Each structure stands twice: as structure tokens, then as C-alpha cells.
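User: Here's a protein and a ligand (calcium ion). What would the complex look like?
Assistant: Let me lay out the input and then the predicted complex.
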Amino acid sequence: MKLKDKVLIIEDEQSISNFISTILGANGYDTIAAGSGEEALSMISSHCPDLIILDLGLPDMDGLDILQEVRSWSNLPIIVVSARTHEHDKVKALDLGADDYIEKPFGTSELLARIRTAIRHTRTPLTNGGIAQSGKLSIGALTIDYDKHHVLMNGTDVHLTLNEFKIVALLGKYAGKVLTYDYMIREIWGPKAKADNQILRVNMANIRRKIEKNPAAPEYIFTEIGVGYRMRDEDE
Ligand code: CA
């Protein structure tokens, strides 16, 4: 029997929580639910969910704080479901490492599709053509461990999110070459992905904060303005 994926629903509105739980239950997922941030954080460590659905407006804390906390130690897929529709909330959530962002109200099939995508990306992060690679690559103090999906600076894991790792992994595979935004988006998010450079830029800003001494004057990943990105060659 196939093991079911376990989804943690973090949502304080009982009716919405029940609604999501019913949909997921009917579609082959196990669900657990938390109604507050504190409860959510303890359930994440005790129940090891496969995916989190996160509401931003919780009674005791901001969902973005939960996102930040979880991202400090885990690449667990997190889908933010929120009534906040401002562009900056969306960017902030993606910036902090959310895998996806769905605005309320949302459709059942949309939610299910986003969950499938997020889980699939975790399970098979590097099997899509461009990124598939094994072993390790070292450039200066930076090491990409393709088997463990980690990026290390001076031997210390910098805790990239899955999307951030895919970007670094892809650039590393073609170190020294300029990869265009469109090419990267297709390789990382699939041929049908919308060419949205904003998501790439947000992820890149995050990556640079984690791997560059001075993100404004990068030593590892360079921006080729209007074209794309290039990772430094091994002997550059
Ligand atoms: Ca709420």
C-alpha cells in the first residue's frame, strides 16, 4: 500500500480548515490541523508533515514568522494560502522561502494541483533534465552537494530552500556560462512555467544573502543585466 502524504493545515478559521481537510482527505492525503502558530510549530516537529498549508493571519503570530522559523532548519514544502493580496505580501512570503502562494478564495482543483506540484518538486528535485547531476562541485568557498541537495559555504550548510537550491544547482552545472532567465525558469519549473522573472529575482536575492559576503558585489553568481545569471567558473 502506498504511504499517504501528510499535510499540516495551519489555519485558525475552523470552517476553512475543515474544508481543506475534507478536500485533501477525499484526494488521498492524511491531514492534521493546527489553529495557532504555537500549536503549528510543535506539530511540525512532532508529526513531520510532508507539506504545510499556511494561513498568514493567525491569532498568536504572523504566518510569515512561522515560515521563517521553519525555513531556518527545513526545506519542507510550504504553500501559503492567504487573503492578503498585496504584491509585497506575496513577494515577502516567497522571499522567506514559501514554495507557492494561493490567494483566498481559491478553487479546489487549483489547491490540489499546487500541492501535487510542491510535493513532486520535493521528491524529484533534480531529475528534470537540466539540473540532473551528482557528486560535488566546489568553486572557491562554495560547495554544491548534488546528492544531498545542500549548498555549503566554508563547509557549513547555508540552508537553501528547494527552489534556491535548484537555481544554484543549475547555474553550477553550467558554471562559467550565462543562462538566460527564460531558460532557467523552464529548466527549474518546467516547460509550461510562466516566464516570471520576479520569482527568479526574489530567489536570487535570497541566495545571495546566504552565500555572498557582500550581496551587492557578488563573487559567485553574477547578473548579466537583461539576459540572465552566470556562476563563476571553477578556475575564474
Ligand atoms: Ca486566519
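Summary: Residues 12-13, 55, 57-58 surround calcium ion (CB under 6 Å).
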